[in-house]
Amino acid sequence: QRAGWRLDGFFVQPVTVDVAKFDESAEVDFAGGYYVNSCRKGTVWEVYGLYYNNEGKTWLGVTGEDERFTLGGAWRGPLPGTPFEADLEAAVQAGTFAGRDIGAWMATGEVAWKPCGACWKPRLALGADYASGDADGAGGDAGTFHQLFPTGHLWFGWVDLVGRQNLVAGRATLSVQPTEKLTVRSDVHGFWRAETADAVYTAAGTE
């Protein structure tokens, strides 16, 4: 880590919690590198590469080894000379699942309007998300984007109904800050499947 940027590398093996004995690996490997740059005040951009391997992944009724690589990038910050700010991210995935090639991707974006800073700091934002699904169901290449280890309610509502897999989503957000320690926020969400042959996935990634 240096002034204005940070680079992280990691390797972890999630475990299955068992209160009666020592926890054991869930046969999942997760590793990667993550670079964050905030040298320009108010603007942050990120680049990441992630590796995921699950020896016993079940998807659409098929169980097999899921080995995939994710490459992505993100940018957020104000749009110069305007009262608008943006938050953008996109990622692609490749690999194999149960002998099938993986080809998946996602993109998300939000544009927010902040008209003033002295009158409760109102913020109105419109956002959209797309995460690829699988048009072939359980046959052919695997096209469903894998959200890996998400925190769903940050983007799709605190109800945590859906995850970023086989998803088309739109949202509108309005927030105000009456006091320094109080923020009032309201969200409206809409959800659709990207591919009707694929499943609806929960925030945890289950079908």
Describe it:
- With 207 residues, the protein is an all-beta fold.
- It has one helix at 153-156, and strands at residues 5-12, 15-16, 24-25, 28-37, 44-59, 62-78, 84-97, 100-113, 123-131, 167-179, 182-192.
- A hairpin with a 5-residue loop joins strand 6 and strand 7.
- The longest helix has 4 residues, at 153-156.
- It is globular, with a radius of gyration of 19 Å.
Please outline the helices and strands.
Layout: E1 5-12, E2 15-16, E3 24-25, E4 28-37, E5 44-59, E6 62-78, E7 84-97, E8 100-113, E9 123-131, H1 153-156, E10 167-179, E11 182-192
Antiparallel strand pairs: 1-4, 2-3, 4-5, 5-6, 6-7, 7-8, 8-9, 9-10, 10-11
Summed over residues and divided by their number, the pLDDT gives a mean of 91
The total strand number stands at 11
Helical percent range? under 10%
Strand order of the largest sheet: 1-4-5-6-7-8-9-10-11
CA(first)-CA(last) distance: 39 Å
Helix-strand string: EEEEEEEEEHEE
Supply the number of helical segments. Answer: 1
State the low-pLDDT regions, or none: none
Rg estimate, integer Å: 19 Å
Which structural class best describes the helix and strand composition? mainly beta
Assembly level: single chain
- What percent strand? over 45%
Rough shape? globular
Report the biggest beta sheet as strand number plus sense, adding barrel if it closes.
9 strands, antiparallel
List keywords for this structure.
207 residues; globular; single chain; two-stranded antiparallel ribbon; 2% helix; 1 helix; 9-stranded antiparallel beta sheet; 56% strand; mainly beta
